[in-house]
Automatic annotation (TrEMBL):
It comes from the Bacteria. Pfam families: HerA_C. SUPFAM superfamilies: P-loop containing nucleoside triphosphate hydrolases. This is ATPase. Residues 46-467 form the Helicase HerA-like C-terminal domain. Residues 108-124, 497-521 have a biased composition (Basic and acidic residues). Residues 483-494 have a biased composition (Pro residues). Residues 99-124, 467-562 are annotated as: Disordered.
Length: 562
């Protein structure tokens, strides 16, 4: 009986040093790059075998995943530091409150020095980066930022309100009705006023014009809006609205500013902050020009706890996220999602992510083992590692990495020991954060809410009782008749208006451009003029897919005029 020849040993077992050098050669580049760490083979790290990703490839997006406590947040911190040093602005949420340390130099210790030696970071020096602290208005200590309901649009708002698809479609038609009546929806009170009107006796005809929208469905939406107001939505939605250009700033010495969005206070309403981040991405898509391939991104978006974005999301929302991620690359924006499992990200979105930094996975349950098997199948084929074993055997601060090279091809799979951040790995001094917020140039722009006339005031004035005309008197005579005065009616209740920011030297918030493109079109006609069953069905579809208005983007957000 012939004996089959022995199988070739894995390359890693045959020559660990040669394998590390060969893997690192796949990451070599002459372009500016973010250094992630060094190659590990058979438990031995090679400080000269660098794993890096070219800056120009960061607009191909990426994923940082791994179980709790495996080092995902530190990897995001490392990315933010190096991007800032390269002149690239960064936006990232601070979910746990431990990223404020980015602004402070790190603390060298034995572990940090050992990690620096392992990863070839010979000139490791404690260094902070320029940080801007923002928070959703009323939900933190950072500079308060807001968005108008009108700019948010019905699809994103439906995610916040946890509406089903039928209710989402109805909300889109309500937005459309407000558009057609020139009723600005700036804050929660405006939307409540519109829905209250549509479900009242005075608004019965308008409700029928909306293609047979039921009062019960509108009532459900009204209750959800009321709950949102009680959870802080009444302070977040409004003006002045955040200008996304303020996320693209650099310091005078050329470093990119890292914008931290404080969201630790929003753990009870995670849909609000995750959807707000998607609104920012949609606003960037609308505001930025097409630039194609760039040497370095205009902005990189590090989206921590990304699973909150897709949890219970509607089909329309998921499709909108997929399309935005696919197209925003041409605007020079890179997006990195971070979550515990790759399967937290929908497949069509995951397929758009060119860089993979996978920290350790756990395989304690059948579902964990299924997720592990699915993760292994998403990596390029490799003879250097048994990925099922590697992904469960990674140490803290280690990851299995593959990115796109400068040629756009996947790099070899690399077990990577990740570099140590140079900034403080923990929260910064709260007093220093408070002082930075007070000194921020954005404080004067966004610190004070502005309340101008909008749907609430307009509907209140429109529905207020009108004074009767004076009664005609008898024919003139030499005797002066008594003066008949009309009855005095109290003015409609109005919210106290706040001063126009121009009166204090500030910049006026951008005015709404809802109907700027149809100044000569005259007043919009009611939907009832066109109504029949076919048109009603069409409008319901329009409300779901486009937010009920041809002037809205894929998310139903307000389109900007170029």
């Amino acid at each position: 009986m012939s004996v089959p020849p022995p199988a070739d040993p894995p390359a890693a077992a045959a020559d660990p040093a040669g394998t590390a050098t060969r893997i690192a050669a796949g990451y070599a580049t002459d372009q500016p790059a973010v250094l992630l760490g060094t190659v590990v083979v058979d438990g031995v790290v090679d400080p000269s075998a660098q794993v890096q990703v070219p800056l120009s490839m960061l607009t191909r997006h990426g994923l940082v995943a791994g179980a709790t406590g495996t080092g995902k947040t530190k990897t995001l911190q490392l990315l933010a530091e190096q991007l800032s040093a390269a002149g690239v602005p960064v936006l990232m949420p601070d979910v746990k409150g431990d990223l404020t340390g980015l602004s402070a130099p790190g603390r060298p210790d034995a572990r940090t020095q050992a990690r620096a030696a392992d990863t070839g970071d010979r000139d490791w020096t404690p260094t902070g980066v320029p940080v801007e602290y923002l928070s959703l208005a009323g939900q933190g200590t950072g500079v308060p930022v807001r968005a108008t309901l009108d700019s948010f649009g019905p699809i994103l708002l439906s995610k916040v309100l946890d509406l089903n698809e039928t209710q989402e479609s109805t909300l889109g038609l309500i937005f459309h009705w407000a558009d057609s009546r020139n009723l600005p929806l700036l804050d929660v009170q405006d939307l409540r006023a519109v829905i209250t009107h549509l479900t009242s006796d005075e608004g019965k005809a308008d409700l029928q014009d909306l293609g047979g929208v039921s009062r019960s469905t509108a009532g459900v939406i009204l209750r959800a809006v009321t709950n949102l107001a009680a959870q802080g939505g009444d302070t977040f939605f409004g003006e002045p609205q955040l200008d996304v250009a303020d996320l693209l700033r650099t310091t005078p010495d050329g470093r990119g500013i890292v914008t931290l969005l404080e969201v630790a206070e929003l753990r009870t309403n995670p849909a609000l902050f995750s959807t707000f981040l998607m609104w920012l991405l949609a606003e960037l898509f609308e505001a930025l020009p097409e630039v194609g391939d760039v040497e370095r991104p205009k902005l990189v978006f590090l989206f921590d706890e990304a699973h909150l974005l897709f949890a219970d999301a509607s089909k329309a929302f998921r499709q909108a996220v997929e399309q935005t991620v696919k197209l925003i690359r041409s605007k020079g924006v890179g997006v990195f999602f971070s979550s515990q499992l790759p399967t937290d990200i929908p497949g069509p979105v995951l397929s758009q992510l060119g860089a993979r930094v996978q920290h350790a996975l756990r395989a304690f349950t059948p579902d964990d083992q299924k997720a592990l098997a699915a993760t292994v199948r998403t990596y390029p084929t490799t003879r250097d590692y048994d990925l099922s074993t590697a992904l469960t055997g990674l140490g803290i601060g280690e990851a299995v990495v593959t990115v796109l090279s400068e040629r756009g091809a996947p790099t070899p799979v690399a077990w990577t020991r990740v570099r140590a951040p140079r900034s403080l790995m923990g929260p910064a001094d709260p007093a220093g954060v408070t002082a930075a917020v007070a000194a921020s140039p954005l404080q004067s722009r966004y610190g004070t809410a502005v309340d101008r006339e909008s749907a609430y005031e307009m509907l209140a004035a429109r529905l207020a009782p009108q004074a009767p005309p004076p009664v005609a008197g008898p024919a003139p005579t030499d005797e002066l008749p008594p003066v008949i005065l009309p009855p005095i009616t109290p003015p409609p209740a109005r919210r106290p208006s706040r001063p126009d920011p121009r009166d204090s030297g500030g910049e006026r918030p951008p005015s709404r451009t809802r109907h700027a493109d149809r100044e000569d079109a005259g007043p919009a006609s009611g939907l009832g003029d066109l109504l029949n069953p076919a048109v009603g069905s069409f409008l319901r579809s329009l409300g779901s897919a486009m937010g009920g208005s041809l002037g809205r983007s894929v998310f139903g957000t307000r389109r900007r005029r170029r």
